[in-house]
Amino acid sequence: MAADTVRNEGAPWRIVLAEDDGPVRERLAGIVENWTGGELVAVCPDLASTVLAIETNPLDLLITDLNLPDGSGIDAIRLLARIRPDAEAMVISVLADERTVLDAIEAGAAGYLLKDADSIDLAEAITDVMSGKSPISSSIARVLVRRLSDRPAAIGPEDEPRPHLTPRETDILWGIAKGFSYSELAERLGISNQTVPVHIRNIYRKLQASNRSEAVYEATRLGLIRL
Amino acid sequence: MSVVLPERPRALWTPGLLIFLLALLAALAPSVLSLPFPEAARTLATGTVSFDNGPEVTVDLPHDWSRSDAPAGPAQAIYRFEFELEQVPETDQYLLIRSVRHQITTRLNQARIEPVAGGLWVNPVSGSTPVMVVPRHFFLAGSNELEITMERFNGAALGHLSLIHLGGDTEIGLVHRLFPILGDQLRATAYALQTLILLGILVVWTARRRDPVFGWMLALSAGSLAVAVAEVSLARTDYADVQTYLYMTLAAFGVTAYGLACSVLDAPRPPWLAPSAILVPLTLVAGSLLGLPAFPLALIGVLAAIAGHFAAALALSGGFARTGSWELGLLAFPFFLITTTGLHDIAVSLGILDGGMLLSGYVRTLTILMIVILLMRRLATSLKQVDEANETLRTRLKQREDELAVLHERERSRAVAAVRDQERQRLMHDLHDGLSGHLVSIIALSERETAEPRSIEKAARAALDDLRLVINSLDIGDRDLPLALAGFRERLGPQLRRIGIELEWSMERLPEISGVTPANALSILRILQEAVTNAIKHGPAKRIAISANGGSDGSAVIRVENDGRSTRGDGKGHGLANMQRRAVQIGGSVMLDQMEEGMRVTLTLPAALANRG
Predict the structure, then answer these.
(1) Which of A120, B117, B328, B594 is a plausible cystine mate for B319, CB 3.0–4.6 Å?
(2) Domain A2-130 of CATH type 3.20.20.80
(3) pLDDT over 70 (residue B150)
């Protein structure tokens, strides 16, 4: 069992793919199969089989559509975050619109993939996510900035629902929201081009954590959870 | 606000008659309701009288003078009564005369007796009820003589003497002993009240000169008080002659009462009315001074007063019948009362009617009282009207606000609908411009049997790209051009990388452009997309550089350069025309240049974008 869950160094990433649309699912599965860096553990057309796949197979990465016929991919991402915290999750989206992506990120996803991605895009996206980097678009950054500044300012450190970003992370987020590219930002901030997506990943993690604590806070307030 | 009163189907004179009868009843009341009879006391009922030292004649009390006894002018009557006492009483005794008109001096066995109360506010001509203390040592065992000297200083009013009662504490009760004192106090209070009311009316009048009601009220109450004080103070003095003139001036009251009635009724007043209030009494007085007989003139004055009050009472009760306004009825009552008591007093004074007291003096106080009620009612009505006006205003304001709120809400939803409609139009336009064209060509391509396998994919990707452009530009606001460009870059980068083209992107020197709307941003992105598509199609480029710079007058210049082959011939085609059209729509221009290596599309944007129609 332990041997199953621990991945050998250099081995391909074990991937579960969940997508309800047949041709798209086959297309993406084909790309993953032809890519040496990845190994398909399961290809699921719905949430039930995805949940089953997550529970039964050791995996490194879940790639899921959010709109599954029997539920939301968000639930699959949450499940993954709970029972396989070392694994990563990505959402597949046609437009990678802000709402979809941010919902997924708050549930625990680390990145997103466009549905029309080709093999190069897919390989790059998976490689980035698995090496601790996350993508962000200017429009997502903008929504995020707006949302963070809309949240009430913290009163005490204990019940602070707003993720506490470092000044560097804040700079990056604001820069992207203003339309700067990674390289422009890196140049401005005097950092390496490659560290920008790492910072993004950190921002996502804080977002997920604060979302979780916010959920817990809300649940406590409503009397659903007794601490 | 005008109040329309409903027509009252009531006979005009019924309420007037009712008030008049009530007044008549009130005038006769004193004859019916009088002091209780002190049964246990000694009553003197028979004696003698001698007029102006003439022969003594036996009289039975009560006794009224007759005109033959004492024609107009000063007159004196001496009454004598004899009574037997077995012994001198053990205590001081009381002497009660139920009613007496004119000044009297009382002596018992030649010793003068003083009344208990001063009778300071009593007009002796109107009649009084004197009570006197007779010290016990004035009495004699055996025969006693009581002498009453009654004096008329002037005028024509006939004297009157009622039954005389004599007794101790038990026989002449507390009621009788207190009666003159209370009467004095009441009269004094009445004068004080009249003075206060006069002041009040004066204040109201000075504040509301335009309202004639207050002017007439002031005249009536001031005159009334003046006459009352004059009557009382002149009656006892050597100036008693003046009292005759006082009766002549009473004519002014008739005029004033009628004036007040007219103004309360809002009826037109004859122009001679106000002057005649002064002229009529002046004429009478002048006539008397010129030698005309005083008595008829005084009678004319009194009758004029009565007639004036009667006319006023009739007018007021008529108004009361018409409008049902109690204000008018309230004022009509004392006016009728003055009419009836006036007639009663004349009759008594002239010996036509027997009776003790003259009543007009008391009724005047009633008039003043009614005036006070009238004033208060007017005040209350005004306040009520102010309240109602306020309430009406508040209601109207509320209605107006509600209407405005409805209008505002309608306007708002109309504006929202307009914006939504505009947005839908734009979206339709945008989708039609790009997406639908691509979809149609996908259909066409897929129907063609010999289609190039990649062509459908290309068209579909173009469709998706365009859809993303549209969505990307949806949320773009003013000065958000860098954001729109960033979104474009984020999609273009991977696309170009996929086909092995390097993208150089430099937007740092892009000046700030205003007037950026979703539609404008979409136009700019489509121009850039077209330029890139052309570069890829006709290139074949290895590198595409997109950079921005500031131009003249704050304009922005965005250049798309590629290192492909010269495509000048092709560049004149559809693509450039399309770009040119879009650029012109937003107030910019597009230029195509051939460079040594490759082509350059230059998009120039004004500092403020024009709005695409």
Answers:
(1) B328
(2) no
(3) yes
